[in-house]
Hints:
Layout: H1 3-9, E1 17-23, E2 27-33, E3 39-46, H2 56-71, E4 78-85, E5 96-97, E6 107-108, E7 111-115
Amino acid sequence: MTESSSAAAAGQDRTPYVIAIDAGGTNTRVGCFGPDATLVGSAIGRGGSPNHNHDGAQQIGETVRRAIAGAGLDPATAQCVSAGVAGCGLGEREETPTPSSTCRNWRARRSWSTTR
């Protein structure tokens, strides 16, 4: 089964989208936006700031996964991730690796984004 046919079999929406992350000390907000900038999925989770939460990166990753799954989106069709993470860029925590089930090799910096 190809990637496309397995996504269709799972009932996932193959529409391209971008992921926006606002990770603070108290909570993390994630929005998934379609090509016309319409909000197609969202989730709110625990704080993602590395200065406030020892598990901040995990909280960001979990919130991203819930936003994608809750909207029925295919993780493979994410085109871009943009993240604003409170506390990134301060001292030795200049770069905080953040897990993503959709985009490879990205890091969060104050408000740093990447495309695939």
